[in-house]
Every structure is written in C-alpha cells, then in structure tokens.
Amino acid sequence: MVKLFIDFNNGLGEQSLDSLLPQFEVLSFLPEAPKINRETITIPRRHGLILPQHPRDVTYGERKIDVEIYLNARIHENFYM
User: What is the model's pTM?
Assistant: First the structure.
C-alpha cells in the first residue's frame, strides 16, 4: 500500500488520502519526470545554450501520472467506478 497525502495551504493542511477517502486504497503511484518549459538562445561562436530568463520564470508543463487504486465498493452503484 502506498501512502499519499493531499497538500493544501502550503503544507499546513496536509491530510492522508486514507483519512479523506477510507474506501480507496492506492496500490501504485508512478509519476513521469516533470517537463520544464524555458527559453533558450544560442549565440554564434559560443558553446551551449544561454538561459535569457530568471530561474523563477521557468514553468513546468503537464505530466502523466499513473495511479492504480483499489476501491472497496460496498454500495452497488459504486461498483463501476
């Protein structure tokens, strides 16, 4: 079993997913590496890439996260979740 925590309010309101949703059990959690979106420029007669922006201006793109969840469906309507 994997312990997942929901973080809100900059870490002050962290709660485990087990306490919020007791009928769910996370079996696996596999996130991809983050995709970094940043500007680069090349200057003639210089090796490598130059970052023209401040490091705080770097943004992260979407990434895929595979999660396998076990659902204990005690109500018939929840079976097809």
Answer: 0.52
